Amino acid sequence: MSTPMLRVQGLVKRYGARVALDHLSFALAPGRFVTLLGPNGAGKSTLFQVLTGLFAADEGDVEVAGLSMRSSVRRALTHIGVVFQQQSLDLDLSVARNLQFQADLHGLPRALAATRIAEESARIGIAADLGRTVRELSGGNRRKVELVRALLHRPALLLMDEATVGLDPKSRRDLLQALHDEVRERRVSVLWATHLVPEAESADRVLVLHQGRLLADGTPAEVTAALGGDSLEAAFIQATATRGPGRPAPG
Asked: Which residue numbers delimit the ABC transporter domain (predicted)?
């Protein structure tokens, strides 16, 4: 078997008495679209902050392409691209300058960066917007710019944290399609965090997170059966309807 692109082992993250991640373990194979499905407060954003090195776990470890985030964090992060829930583009710079800045941060030669910016922008459908300021773009196209930015250094693992918040249905569909294309054509591993069940229904695999714990793991059909519902949505709502005493979990 190939090395998992992402391995999470016994991950624990606390905020004082609050447990955000409770001995969380799972692994992601290369070239899969995996949805991390959980209600608000399940621990999704906390997990992403640990995966990207913004927070340190209290216990456990994360491996990216076989590299430990504890002992080889810089090398591990080179394999990761990320789109956070909060947009972080410079609204007053052009799309091209935003992307060039990211390429510079990764140390890409200017000629290579220009080629990748052109290629990825064409693939995602924003080539005509490269000269416009980000402020001029719709919410959907701003997300596409962030996706292009995350792909410039050719990551093997792409983390998407509630990336469709505030998007209209067409923009949501287009963004999901672009991600599925990356998985199919380049075997990128995608971990897509969401609380929206329809976004999980086309995933290769669904991880249901609640109160920092993994409730179910499998295909959408397997998760539906494991949680006991007539549909994935019904099963998800039923399984996450209650919160145990003393177990608030931020993120």
From this structure: 6-236
